[in-house]
Amino acid sequence: MEKHITLPLTEEIAKTLKAGDTVYLTGTIYTSRDAGHKRMCESLAKGEPLPFDPMNATIYYVGPTPAKPGQVIGSAGPTTSGRMDAYAPTMLSVGARGMIGKGARLPEVVEAMKKYSGVYFGAIGGCGALLAKCIKECELIAYEDLGAEALRKLYVEEMPLFVIIDSEGNNLYESGRADYLANRK
Known about the structure:
Order of helices and strands: EHEHEHEHEHEEH
Shape: globular
Low-confidence stretches: none
Helix content: 25-40%
Radius of gyration: 16 Å
Mean pLDDT: 94
Number of strands: 7
């Protein structure tokens, strides 16, 4: 099913999404990779606030390239999500709800998604230049010393994604493979 979603990604919206849905996101998302996630989780462990309100937030696992003159951002393709698996349950526990990346997730992440009504969106790797066209605003908000891995606030319009794992734990990587194998005879 095709869905157009205006962020933030509330629990109510998250529960309507199913593995395999095509989704077009519009609104504010945040960027972070493993170094940024590590810092955020260390801050949370110390009782310190995050540089943004994580409630109903969607985090894009991306380290964009520098913007060329006249561009908002450089190429912005997804990073392998498994690099954030150690941190994702913590981020979900403080209210983050959406994650955008590529690749499989650990069972612990899927369990946290079920517990906190999280959704894992897949972006197509290798399409960073095309995905960057959906990014209309980019603001550096924290961890500038991390370079490409700094925390950024983006405004996106109609960003094309797929629901890979929904809030019930249904996984397109598993169901899609099973459907393919069952129908290839």
